[in-house]
Write a structure and sequence with these properties.
The structure holds 3 protein chains of 3 kinds. Chain A contains 19 helices and 11 strands. Chain A has 3 domains: 152 residues; 219 residues, no CATH class; 103 residues, no CATH class. In chain A, helix 2 packs across helix 4, helix 9 runs antiparallel to helix 13 and helix 13 packs antiparallel against helix 14. By secondary structure, chain A is of the alpha+beta class. In chain A, strands 3, 4, 5, 6, 7 and 8 form a 6-stranded antiparallel sheet that branches. Chain A has a 4-stranded antiparallel sheet with strand order 2-11-10-9. The longest helix of chain B is centred in the first third of the chain and has 24 residues. Chain C has a domain of 104 residues: Nucleic acid-binding proteins (OB fold (Dihydrolipoamide Acetyltransferase, E2P), Beta Barrel), CATH 2.40.50.140. Classes of the chains: A alpha+beta, B mainly alpha, C alpha/beta. Chains in contact: A-B, A-C. The interface between A and C is large, with 97 and 62 residues.
């Protein structure tokens, strides 16, 4: 009965979302409509509670190993550790869609409670959110139900893919989804604003905190995924430019553009149309991501053609959202108003440049991701577009954006101020060539792109430090210190990521060699000796654990494992890492192979990833920076639109 | 029924929550009407959506219940998959149940899951050293390694053979291990020994004897035949293959005169003569071996097995 | 600055960035695009030695050879041809005989394929897309190709795809 109750609750959430559309819409009608507003809020409340209860019932079904539910049978086995039984409830397709729906409802409730101060805007946003909820709950209820039953009931479920059985993956999908789905609020507010002709500045102010929160979560989710790939897939890559990653990277890029352009729109009224357009597009790309990942189109265009139900549903949702959003935009963009003018070397100009570059990067990634699929769909040659394309096409654009980034905080709004900014940043500017030379020397044989990337990373970090030094005192006096610290941290984070990526791209070649006990391999000036291999079985797997001595034991011991999950009939590698300030020593152990002389050698992969911590640090900085800005913004009760027109001469120079 | 009532209650609570704002404001007309419409819409609508794919009658099947049912059923009425599940359930309760470990291990060995089987046997052996389990584990290892008796498997068979020398499988595979290394006399000794220990009617006896005779009578190659190539000159001189074969067999015959205790050598000689078409010489070699190994019942069984093989071949020709 | 002037500025900047990005994407695409060849296509019309391509097919049973120094040599087939592949790296954990894989690298003049990447996606039921399409064409495709050994459920029950969550 638990399963059927879960199914009923999904149906109830779908109905509540439908009611939410209409009731909240009427609530926006004017005075005397408070009952409708309240009822709209109640509807979103019911959707949250119903979806939340359904999620709990699904988790309970996993804990009970109820294999009469197809989704449970496909993703769990009796012997799986408890934490992964719980995580499996959002680890597969249907469960992750339930999570998506639950989060949509939570954000709908959030909008109803803490949404824009303007009552009409808030009510309409709740109504649009209801539309998005209805689409996804409909998909969940009719095409992708996690409570679909299975008959006959299998005795044992299929193990969740063992490489997904990882503590990090317990939190990675929820985090990522908070980001993806959080962007729906920006969509809903933007659509509501267009509907009732809210001026651009006020609309940007309403969108910004939601977009910032969602984008911060998206950053954290992507970073967790990259970190997981680094240590779990066994060969030290952290970003592969595969379609699944690109699906999350495109909304991230647009989200990054949005949180910056919305500052310019809010403060100066610059490019209001663009900001609203981005708010719509970011969530549409989130849905496109869901389509790419969930329809099977990545695995094969044919797989999608064979079982198109899910894909067609998601395409339908994509179509409805885009048509609704862009039609509104086309009809009403004129009502957003025009901002004041600005000089080509003002803060607005730089934010605009950053937006162009981020959007162009997103386009480049979109082309690289979709082109092979479109070509195949049209019967053309089968091709693959891999990392070389993205590295060559996307990286330069991102590097230019990172090069401009540190200057922006030093430029004044509206007026040109490059000379002033340059003189304030002298010290950091001088660091660029120094950093480039150091990097070129440190990583002999590094590619020019990596040297440039590393130097730009150092420049961004030093620029962020100078930003703090220059503006923190003023900001503290104004009670806006969190905003400045947040900005500096996030910008420094970008620098750290550039530096870490450049260093990792220049690492010494990985080594892959079969070692018998007693034999050694040298990498990055260290000698790793295989001391021995012994069995170390776990609850649902068998394992060989190698003992590897670093520099004969003086540098410590590393214990990578090779596991065999009998339930999933799959082998995985557990990497051993030894981190230091210089970087990570990375060892994984593979198959055993018998030598002619009768000894057993173990395939061993060793690598050294210099400064890899810089990537993690960068991600943490960006997430903290985003969080601080959001907190700072919520604390500041300052008027939303700065009124310091007196401080600048009008239309001069 | 319970389910319908439950959904009705949940739906009613939801409908009431939606209608409340309208009732509270106390305004007449449209609002009150809306709230009245809301109740049936929510109650019926949600149920309607539910029934598109709903299966209210289908019961859940939590694993605890399934395991209980399996435990309460006579194992003979269960399918093999159910038996496997039952054994796993027993082991979950009591991971040290040697019988369940062994049974499950055997089942997995038979269904091509040797790796997991080996783990189960290892666990069972940590609790209780049993020659049969050792033998099963050795065999699983052999299958896992495509028929090769690895050192790990050999150790298992050795231990099993030491604990119970009358078990046929460990002895057979132990002999195979020796044979694979080229230690033919050791192999012959182990095989003769086990053949001696087995009853006449034991199917293993005939099977092992036939296989052993076949293996031991094959011309030697690989490790064990080291040294300078004795026929290099003859090959260089362009001697015909038949003559070359004759030279080799004669050389073997001469060696056996010096070292008549080489059972494998005798069997090889007999088979060589037989394949050359010299059936008489072949039978004679067997007879000489028979008189040589008069006191060794196992060896005699091997010789008889060889003889049987010849007569089978004869009747086929 | 006047409104019209500002518009011009913005349009110009946007145009420069867009044209630049498009040019960058097109050059990169031309250089980085890798064509896929099935063994049958190679048998019919082999690519130039030294040209970077992807090949894919099912790993032939019994063809895998693992030299003691590491790496592996193996043969892939699609029924219409065979390609011998040598690979120095460490095979993915999901690599096994009968499994579909994709390898990227170059052919040497003798027709052997030197791979620098071997992909078997981190999913038990995953069939690399190019392989699935090529196999379907060659008639070697079975819908149940990703058969699930071990605790298979009753007949007709197929585990849903597990993919990397996102």
């Amino acid at each position: 009965m638990i399963a059927e109750l879960g199914r009923y609750l999904i149906a109830l959430a779908l109905l509540a979302s439908l009611v939410q559309i209409f009731v909240a819409w009427r609530g926006a009608g004017g005075v005397g409509r408070t009952a409708y507003v309240k009822a709209g809020q109640a509807a979103s409340e019911i959707a949250v509670l119903a979806a939340g209860a359904a999620m709990i019932l699904l988790i309970a079904s996993f804990l009970r190993s109820d294999f009469s539910i197809a989704y449970v049978a496909a993703n769990s086995s009796v012997d799986k550790p408890l934490a992964y039984k719980i995580a499996a409830s959002w680890g597969g397709h249907e469960g992750s869609m339930l999570l998506w729906c639950l989060l949509l409802a939570v954000f709908g409730y959030g909008l109803a409670r803490f949404g824009p101060k303007d009552d009409g805007l808030r009510s309409r946003a709740v109504s649009f959110q209801g539309l998005l909820q209805t689409l996804f709950f409909g998909f969940l209820a009719f095409a992708s139900n996690p409570f679909e039953r299975l008959s006959p009931v299998p005795l044992q479920g299929a193990e969740l893919n063992p490489i997904l059985q990882d503590p990090l993956l317990v939190i990675h999908p929820p985090m990522l989804y908070v980001g993806y789905v959080g962007l729906s609020t920006a969509f809903a507010i933007a659509a509501a604003g267009l509907m009732q002709k809210t001026p651009g500045r006020a609309l940007a102010a309403a969108i910004r905190p939601w977009a910032l929160g969602a984008w911060t979560a998206l950053t954290a989710g992507i970073a967790l995924g990259a970190f997981w790939a680094y240590y779990e897939l066994g060969w030290g890559g952290w970003w592969f430019w595969d379609p699944v990653e690109n699906a999350s990277f495109m909304p991230w890029l647009l989200g990054a553009a949005l949180i910056h352009s919305s500052i310019a729109t809010e403060k100066r009224g610059a490019f209001p149309g663009w900001t609203v357009f981005l708010a719509l597009l970011a969530y549409i790309l989130s849905i496109l991501g869901a389509f790419l990942v969930r329809s099977g189109v990545i695995t094969s265009v044919h797989a999608f053609a064979l079982d198109p139900e899910r894909g067609v549903w998601i395409l339908g949702m994509l179509g409805v959202s885009s048509v609704a959003g862009f039609l509104l935009f086309a009809l009403r963009a004129g009502s957003l108003g025009e901002g004041d003018g600005f000089e080509p070397t003002s803060k607005e100009a730089l934010i605009g440049a950053n937006n162009l570059l981020l959007a162009a990067t997103s386009g480049v990634v979109l082309v690289g991701t979709l082109y092979p699929m479109l070509l195949e769909m049209m019967g053309g040659a089968t091709i693959s577009v891999g990392a070389p394309y993205f590295n060559a096409a996307a990286t330069p654009l991102l590097l230019i954006a990172a090069l401009l980034m540190p200057v922006a905080p030093f430029l004044p709004w509206s007026n040109g101020g490059l000379k002033n900014a340059v003189s304030q940043m002298r010290a950091a500017l001088m660091l660029i060539p120094v950093a480039a030379v150091i990097i070129a020397l440190l990583f002999a044989g590094a590619s020019p792109l990596a040297v440039v990337g590393g130097a730009i990373g150092v420049w961004a970090i030093s620029g962020a430090v100078m930003d703090l030094g220059q503006f923190l005192p003023v900001a503290m006096a104004r009670g806006q210190k969190l905003l400045v610290i947040g900005r500096a941290m996030a910008h420094a984070g970008v620098g750290f990521i550039a530096l870490g990526a450049a260093a990792d791209a220049s690492r010494p070649p990985d080594q892959n060699i079969a070692l018998a006990p007693g034999e050694s391999v040298a990498i990055a000036g260290r000698e790793l000796t295989l001391d021995g291999v012994r069995r170390a079985d776990g609850p649902n797997y068998m394992a060989d654990r190698a003992r590897i001595l670093v520099d004969g034991g003086e540098g410590g011991v590393m214990s990578p494992e090779r596991r065999f999950y009998a339930g999933a009939n799959q082998t995985t590698r557990e990497v051993a890492l030894k981190s230091s300030i210089a970087g990570d020593l990375y060892v994984s152990v593979g198959e055993a192979r018998l030598r002619q002389d009768g000894s057993t050698a173990f395939e061993t992969r060793v690598a050294f990833h210099p400064l890899i911590w810089s990537l993690s640090l960068g991600a943490i900085f960006i997430v903290l920076g985003g969080g601080l800005s959001l907190t700072g913004r919520m604390r500041a009760h300052a008027p939303l639109v700065e009124r310091d027109a007196s401080a600048r001469p009008a239309e001069a120079v | 029924m319970v389910f319908i009532v439950l959904t009705a209650v949940i739906g009613a609570v939801a409908a009431w929550r939606l209608a409340m704002p309208f009732l509270k404001t106390g305004q007449a007309g449209a609002g009150r009407l809306a709230s009245l419409v809301m109740v049936p819409v929510v109650l019926l609508g949600a149920l309607g959506f539910y029934f598109v794919n709903g299966e209210p009658e289908t019961p859940g099947a939590p694993y605890a219940e399934v395991a209980q049912r399996l435990a309460d059923t006579n194992p003979e009425e269960l399918t093999s998959e159910e038996q496997e599940a039952r054994l796993r359930a027993i082991l979950r309760e009591n991971p040290e149940d040697v019988q369940a470990l062994t049974l499950l291990g055997r089942f997995l060995s038979r269904t091509e899951r040797e790796l997991e089987a080996v783990t189960l046997f290892t666990r069972a052996l940590q609790i209780e050293e049993d020659p049969r389990i050792l033998s099963d584990m050795g065999q699983a290892l052999v299958v896992l390694n495509n028929g090769q008796v690895t050192p790990e498997a050999e150790r298992a068979f050795e231990a099993a053979n030491a604990l119970d020398p009358s078990l046929p499988e460990p002895a057979f595979f132990l002999g195979s291990a020796y044979y694979a290394r080229g230690e033919r006399n050791e192999a012959a000794a182990v095989w003769s020994d086990i053949i001696m220990r087995l009853d006449d009617g034991d199917p293993f006896r005939a099977a092992i004897a036939a296989r052993a005779a076949d293996l031991l009578s094959r011309p030697q190659g690989g490790p064990g035949s080291a040294g300078a190539a004795p026929f290099a000159d003859a090959i260089a001189a362009g001697v015909a293959p038949e003559d070359l074969a004759e030279m080799m067999v004669s050389r073997l015959e001469a060696r056996l005169e010096d070292d008549p205790d080489d059972l494998s050598g005798w069997l090889t000689l007999a088979r060589a003569r037989w394949t050359q078409g010299q059936t008489e010489a072949g039978l004679e070699a067997l007879e000489r071996a028979r008189s040589r190994f008069e006191d060794n019942a196992g060896a005699l069984a091997l010789i008889s097995a060889m003889r049987t093989a010849f007569s089978v071949e004869e009747s086929e020709q | 600055m006047r409104k019209a002037q500002r518009r011009l500025w913005i349009t110009l900047a946007a145009g420069v960035v867009l044209v630049g990005a498009a040019a960058l994407a097109m050059t990169a695409m031309r250089d980085a695009m890798v064509f896929f060849y099935s063994p049958a296509m190679v048998a019919e019309n082999p690519p130039q030695p030294g040209q970077r391509v992807r090949v894919g097919g099912l790993v032939l049973d019994g063809s895998v050879e693992r030299p003691a120094r590491g790496g592996a040599n193996f043969t892939i087939t699609d029924g219409g041809g065979e390609i011998r592949i040598s690979y120095d790296g460490s095979l993915p954990d999901l690599f096994r005989e009968g499994q579909g894989i994709v390898a990227e690298g170059v052919f040497d003049p003798e027709g052997r394929f030197a791979a620098d990447t071997v992909l078997a996606k981190h999913d038990e039921t995953y069939m690399p897309p190019e392989v699935a399409a090529a196999l379907r064409e060659s008639g070697m495709w079975h819908e149940e190709a990703g058969d699930h050994e071990g605790y298979g459920g009753p007949e007709g029950y197929r585990p849903a795809e597990t993919e990397r969550p996102s």
